[in-house]
Specification:
Layout: H1 6-31, E1 35-41, H2 60-68, E2 70-72, E3 75-76, H3 82-91, H4 95-98, H5 115-120, E4 125-131, E5 158-162, E6 195-196, E7 199-200, H6 209-226, E8 231-236, H7 248-251, H8 259-284, E9 291-297, H9 303-307, H10 325-328, E10 332-335, E11 344-346, E12 350-351, H11 355-362, H12 379-384, E13 394-400, E14 405-412, E15 415-418, E16 427-430, H13 446-467
Parallel strand pairs: 1-8, 1-9, 2-11, 3-12, 4-5, 4-8
Antiparallel strand pairs: 2-10, 5-6, 6-7, 9-10, 13-14, 14-15, 15-16
Amino acid sequence: MKKLSSTKLLFTIGVYLMVANGYAQKSASIKKKPNIILIMADDLGYGDVGFTGNKKIITPHLDNMAKEGVVLSNFYAAAPLCSPTRASVLTGRSPFRQGIFAAHTGAMRPGEITIPEYLKKEGYQTGFFGKWHLGWVEPDKVESRGSYSPPWHHGYDETFATKSAVPTWNPTKTPKGWTSWGSMDDGSWGGSIYVENGTPVTDNLEGDDSRIIMDRAIPFIEQSIAEDKPFLATIWFHTPHEPVVAGPEYLAKYPDLPEGQKHLYGCITAMDDQIGRLRDFLKSKNIDENTLIFFTSDNGPSGPITRKGIASAGPFRGNKHLMYEGGLRVPSIALWPKHTQSGLVSNFQSSTVDYLPTILDILDIRAKKKIPLDGVSFKSVILDGNSEERQVPIAAGYKRLYGGTDIYAFVSGDFKICIPNKGDKMMLFNLKKDPGENNDLAEENPELLKKMSAELEKVKDSWRLSNEGNDYQW
């Protein structure tokens, strides 16, 4: 056998090591766990962002995300108001299973298994930043509704949170002209305060609230990078929930709009700037291609400002607190550069209850047995561009029995039944032909109404079993 010279032998070994190292790096890249960022706006209407067709609002960073990622154009909140939807995001379960029927009603139960709890077991650092609204965050502050159940009881390592809403500009001060809940005669804010890892915050609370939140989220991400750990960052903005206030810089961007719309659009643009800041940071750290970002809103736009023509549900009827599409259909984007289908607008029916099963599917994590989920994974939709129809109907609702509110919606394929508001009868709509819900088909198609109503009752029976403790260990 012919022997290799020492020079050729060293060269051959070098080439082999380079190839082996290349395969190793590729294998490591494939196996490396993606970072996850869950971004949610508060009361953002379907029609109040550029990527859904609004020509006046300035949201370039969200619009770029939509172009680079997947727009889920048929995306539902689990309820037409905040707390229930937030519970559904973290658990993949209807808020009715958890006893969180409306805002300030109940709190996240310790028995619920959340996205951060799943991910912590996989080595993730977990951080929460913004509006929690799933329980009190101050242990010694006793109030009439809800109970103490902060983010750090549900899998979050690092937290910067408020219990509920604050002004979108100068969140420690009552806005000029605001006389409703939270207002104080001395000009301070009498509502929620920021608590960081259990301690009330006093510094860096001036100016735009979205910037204040991002000032805490980015250092958490930076620390996770420094420790070479994957992270889950949940960033839930207050924008554009009332009190809606924009700073001077952002008001100036809309000189020709009415005053109320200047503030609404201004604070949304300020939030968009912070999302752009976040994306720039991810790129500067070379982790953007290993970071999956989800963006959505917790429900449709606030009713009072929608009826004044300030906010918009786009082509849909209704607003927050109503079971029409305008209360439930919300803007939604999924972006994981080099992984999600770039520029895809998917009509797949999806919901906030789908986040947990989708994330678990992507990370190849098995959900806990005997814990019924209401969501399904849309992994194949965003990663492969699959256009299959949803097989599991979407059910939503909320109730406040002291006020006589107990209303629901049930979407199965092209058809939807709903009780839009308290006192209304059950209605039936063909969403494919009538997305604006102008033509109630209940009287002309009573058999379909009866069939779908029976299916909804089966779902509600399952919800009741969960709410009464069926899913928890005794």
